[in-house]
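Contributing: when you submit paired examples, paste them exactly as shown. First protein:
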Amino acid sequence: MNLVVPKRTNPHSNISFVRFLRRSNVEAAMRSLSLKRGASAKTLLFTVLNRTISDYKHLFNDFRPTDIHWSERYLDPNASNIVFEHGWLPRVTYQMSPLGTHARSHVMFDSSIDYYHELGSEQFERCTRRALGHLNPHQMENLPGINDKPFCLLTLGGTDFNLKYSESGFEYIYGQKNANELQAQALIDRIETENPGIRILITEHPAKKCRLKSHLSLPENNRLVSAQENIRSNDLASHPNCQGVIAINTNSIHEGMIKGTKACAYGRLMFRQEDKPVYSSVADMLNSTLSDYEIKTRNYLSMLFMSQWELTDFMDPEIVLQLLKAPGEVIPWKLRTSAELTQKL
């Protein structure tokens, strides 16, 4: 196939990359320029890590063999593993753990720790602005029959490992045929049983593998917003008529929290069921005040901000060295801001 190499690439109307691409690497370069694609985040991570480790081989001579993974699909239980995935807020950062991602991670919320105080109010505000910026929020108008009346937002997630280990009561659906449809219907039925008559907007997961292939049985006050309608969950969560976000354990919970919207999570994220910063039931979410919730969510978000890795971290051999030495103990924010990295190159 003959590839046409553009002389100028415009990621923005005001920004151009001139003769940035070469015929030999045009596909890789185009993927890297499209940072919203998951494959690009993975490619960038491993490219940078590989280069740093290759350039500073002498630092890693004494390490035991370690397998570095993206997600948990090919984990060897007998090997020393480190697992990376998309970050929580914003998604362009990275999460890392020797145990797995999301609820399997070693990163776990402890409400007795004042993460907000550790991070500091100035850094918290900076991280919040950055996360909101990457969400690229839009001001939504009232759409008749959708967000023109008060509603709760139910965001449908995938049916991967996050469901299998969610401790949500929906784990039995993992691995079943038509799992996406089964999960969606089970969620809708539970909410309606526990909160009859409540108005719910249900947003379909945007990933094609998570799309619904058959119709759902919806209560009268429910409305499915399909992915083809191009109405973003993020924007619905920000709307004044949104009374809260509901999910099993998707990242939309975090995105609702960062917007100051109440959230109900049936499953686990980076918290235990007995120590949740969010609500466990829709009724509790709707009947509570924001004050205590805001303090808890601020503290939880501070922990997430401190625990996320930046692409630039992997350019620093000292940081990579500390990461590989104790992947279950290092806190990237502290590594980044500490002046005590004394390993000599």
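Second protein:
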Amino acid sequence: MLHPSQFDVSEAWLAFKLNETPICTDSDGDFDCIALMDAASGFILGNAFAPAGEGEPSMMEVRRLLEEAKAHRRELPQTLILPSGQFDRTLAAEAERVGIAVVRVREDQLLVFIREARTSFKQHFGGGSVQ
């Protein structure tokens, strides 16, 4: 089982979907919020929005997200941890293009990292808590 104590700051980042249900807007449709987090510190390095059902942001949004995240420590991580079956197109491809190794794990192995962020997001935007 993965744990934040296994990593140094900026060694590994992980990407995950913050919301359980789509974020609805009147003018632009429904979206998912994708977060990028430092695995050691739990610090959210940035986020990007993707049209609900598409699974991940556009390549332009992914590049912006990685640059925004890099600005925090002026370096990219060695590893990007992604939930299996998610972010297969743009996020994985761009990470590999810039020299970041992509590792896939079952989403339940990421809960120790992401549960608090999801709970906070849900409380702020949708009430309740995440189990």
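If you have annotations for the second protein, write them as plain sentences, like these:
The chain has a mean pLDDT of 91.
Residues 28 and 67 are 25 Å apart (CA to CA).
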